[in-house]
Amino acid sequence: MIGAIKDILLQISAACSFLFLIQWWVDRGLVARKKGSFPDNQTFLVLACALSLMLCSLLSTTLFGIAYLNLGMIPAYIGILYGTVRSGILLSIFLLVCNIFIAEPAGISNMILNSGILLYPLLFGLAKPFKKGTVVEKIGMLWMVLCPNMLFIALVPIIGGKNIYEAHSGESLLITLYLFFSIALGGIFVYFVEMVWSSWRAKIHMESISDNFQWESEKLQQITNVVPLSIMSLDDHGVVTDLNDCMLGMARMHYPNLKREDIIGKPVREFFNGSADVDAYMRVRDNIQHKRRSHERMIHGTRIYQIYSAPLMHKNSGLTSGVVLIAQDITDEVKLRSELDHVERLSLVGQMAAGITHEIRNPMAVVRGFLQLMREKSSDDLDSYYQIVLEELDRANSIINDFLSLAQSRISDKEKVLLHRVIEEVSPLLWADANLRGQSVELKLNASIHELELNVREIKQLILNLGRNGMEAMGSKGILTLETHSTQEQVELIVRDRGIGMSDSQREKLFSPFFTTKREGTGLGLSLCLSIVERHNGKITVDSVEGEGTVFTISFPLVKDEYSEAMLAD
Predict the structure, then answer these.
(1) CA quadruple 390, 395, 401, 407: dihedral sign
(2) CB atoms within 10 A of CB 155
(3) pLDDT, tens digit, for every residue of 468-520?
(4) Which candidate, 173, 324, 183, 175, places its Cα nearest to that of 242?
(5) Are 61 and 69 in contact (CB under 8 A)?
(6) Which end of the chain has less neighbouring CB within 10 Å, N or C?
(7) What separation in angstroms does the CA of 70 have from each of 13, 75, 92, 402, 410?
(8) pLDDT score of 68 more than 50
(9) Helix extents (H) in 59-168
(10) Could you give the CA distance from residue 563 to residue 452 in angstroms, rounded to a whole number?
């Protein structure tokens, strides 16, 4: 009796071996995830069942020489029902081979009845609905095959002329319990496989939720890092829980060596360090403590910030849990507004000055006329004095004209004209000035230049101002060069001299009104040139090296139709 019980326990252990292999397979995370069924790689399940079948066949025997003891059909049937058609056929063939060559007792009748070959059509017919059924349905389908199989095992000794109930009562009871326990064991095995599959599926679902949550958190963090606002979250006690890159960069403006780890987990008040506006800080602190929505302007060091605060609330419960702070650096905006106010005041002053200078010219013209009359009636000894006064009046009138040209903001009248024609009309005046100074003028004009929309009078004034400045910067035998270039987008006028050049500090202030390096200059010439170029939507650049000379480059853009014609010509 004890030996029979040991044989039954060995069979149960061998039959259970495939369950341990499946559990190990799942715990190691080796299950493939292709179709979402258990296992996706059914080869391992079939192999595990085949190994359990072989162990059961090697340990197979008969109870008291009457009933066939081999539980290998249970993992075999489970493997056939869970596996594919091809793997099921291979596993059924392996079951027959084990019954023929390994299992005891031998014989054709034993092989046919003990292997359950007669139930294979039913087994393969149940395989497809088995995979779609619930746990209870799967257990029932397995029992539909195991019950007849256990009946065949009970018929084998009867066919051999032995009745199990002719044995002693204890032996017959053990054999009967073995038959019924085998059927129950099959249900237990199916339930265990389904539980392993359910736990694995739940694990995969939780991993998917965790991955989605982590991705959403990373995405939210990336979004907050991209937003050009400094964002920081605090808990109920004012301790920093998180911040974005913009907030970290803003903090480093005041504490250069600060790291993210140095901020998170610390009270936010530690980072004001007494350098913030005390009143504004106290208001922000009260708003945080009372979890109120607010916005305050705070001065911290040399920077000005707009601080927004709002409580964080749970959607379901409505309870607050922390505060979010949004800081915006408005220092540049405040400065810009201040500068705009200053510019508006300067513009008003400029308009007033332009009106005053315009009115001054009228009495100056009267004074000049009466001086000329007085000169005609005075003796010749006073001519030199009258000449000095008249020249100074003309010089003052010239300064007024330059100032009025600089102050005017009206759109100048333009006409389509070649820049070369304007240069050729101005060149005799430049040659005359150059001859008086012992200098020369060189023209390098591009033949394929395009027409431009220009105000001829203003462009002449531009060329004369730049040319005469270049001459005044050169000594005798100096060469002033006027050069033109044309591209598909713009026409360039280059004025080059070989004079003394300028320093970097002089070049920075070059176009500022009333800045001059000449002894008798007004400082309005280059400012007027810049105003003319801007009215023509152009650009003017300066390249100067001390001791070598200066190059002014003026770029005039081609209008749309001119650009199209240039493209067609090319």
Answers:
(1) negative
(2) 12
(3) 888 888 888 888 999 998 888 889 999 999 888 888 778 777 776 666 666 66
(4) 324
(5) yes
(6) C
(7) 12, 11, 15, 117, 109
(8) yes
(9) 73-82, 85-101, 108-115, 120-132, 135-159
(10) 11
